[in-house]
Specification:
By secondary structure, the protein is mainly α. The protein contains 12 helices and no strands.
Length: 327
Amino acid sequence: MNASKRSSYRRLGRALNLALIFALLAGFFYYADTEELFRVLAGAHLQIFILAVAASAVITFFMSFRLWLIIRKQGIEMPLLRLVGVNMGIRFYSFFSPISSVGSIMRWSRLIPAGKSAEGLAALGVNRVFEIVLAIAASIFWGFTAAKQDVLDSGLLLIYLGFLVAVLWLTFRVSSSISIWAGQRESSAASDSSTWAYRALKRFFGSFSLYRTLSTSEMALILASAIVADIVGLLAYLLVALSIDIPISFVDLGWVRALGLLAAWTPFTLPGGFGMREISTVVLMTGLGIGPEQATAFSLLLYARSVIIALIGGGIEFVFHISRLAD
């Protein structure tokens, strides 16, 4: 195929992608219950809610920074601001998907270059381990803090950080052992398919175990970015609660949010991105004595915040593909 035909196909593909983005942007009016969202927003303090939306953008930056540090360890180079834009765009596409893992698949396809599949999967796997361990540790930390009558305990904070480091170290150590075992089995495999499987396991877990060589400063930066993103996320929850005058403490919101994030990792969501996080938040808040009407309004405002962030991500995707088509 000559160069002119390849160029024409690339332009056609970009034009079709642009048309898809435009159709999805229009689809917001179909998937999102705009009437209900406007009703809830009308009863909230909009200035405070806007601050909560802005906090979500800050969270995306710190989450992108953490992932940027992780993929660089595998030799995958990408400008940080581009990675932020990719993550915002993924929020847009994930809004329409009933399967939450689609976002992870799209992130892999957008970030990982050819020939780096094992390294890319390892990097995204480490990133997910960080997210899960952080959510579990945060739920334990805020739960014990709430039991101590809403007083932050510095000793408990040190245990929290130690738990994070210990789980991550153990994960990387186990990955190294699996990689060595797969390498030994590869040489004695009975068939080509077994050889391929063991080689793939060796490469993937070998890439995963590479994070054992993280320096103290690299580990500190990754942990700091994860913890800052978590604190800002909690602050955003508090702003949403304040926007509708919900009387709930920072500490109680801490473990409600942590458990909600764990629930959000169930594979399926309802159409338009409304899923287990919002449903579990209503249940947990009513258990704290918050009225069902206020708890439902809080959950809908969280959903509205997600809709706005996804819409911004769609705008970024639209501009990005317009610029690529022009190039």
